[in-house]
Amino acid sequence: MCYALYLSTDNQKDLTKHNSDLVRFEPILNDDENHFTMLLKNRNKWYVGSKSGCSCTFRHLKSIELGFGEPEDWYREDQEEIDATKELFHLIEQLIFCEDQVDCISIWEGSDPEDVVKMDVQLSFLSEVSFRLFENHHFVFYK
After folding, report:
1. Smallest Cα–Cα separation from 103: which of 143, 52, 139, 58?
2. What is the pTM of this model?
3. Structural domain tally of the chain?
4. Alpha-carbon gap, residue 135 to 59, rounded angstroms
5. What confidence tens digit (pLDDT) does each residue in 13-43 have?
6. First to last CA, the chain
7. Which domain holds residue 67?
């Protein structure tokens, strides 16, 4: 079992140009079979992989209970997860800064679309260090 992260934007930009060792973007050309990508709001849709190939090597929490927050000593997170999440945050921030619309869905493999909870996220209240993903959440980003 693993995480899958899908992102959409109204920007026509080729996000594969932002691929690195930690973050990989793959275009989704046909989402008719994927019930999760059909929940995304924008036309240009991407699968966001991490170093592991799937989306597992990003900062994730099962529950939103702890909210956004910086890494804590009592909750071990690998530095690569932190760095990959920072890269993702910077790309989302860059798109939002250019007035583009951006949303993403983080799901646990085996989840149902009905499990996904929408969450509005105002980026100006977050830092690269505090940003993390929550399982089965649909993030809609704002300035």
Report:
1. 139
2. 0.93
3. 1
4. 10
5. 999 999 999 999 999 988 776 788 889 999 9
6. 33
7. 3-142
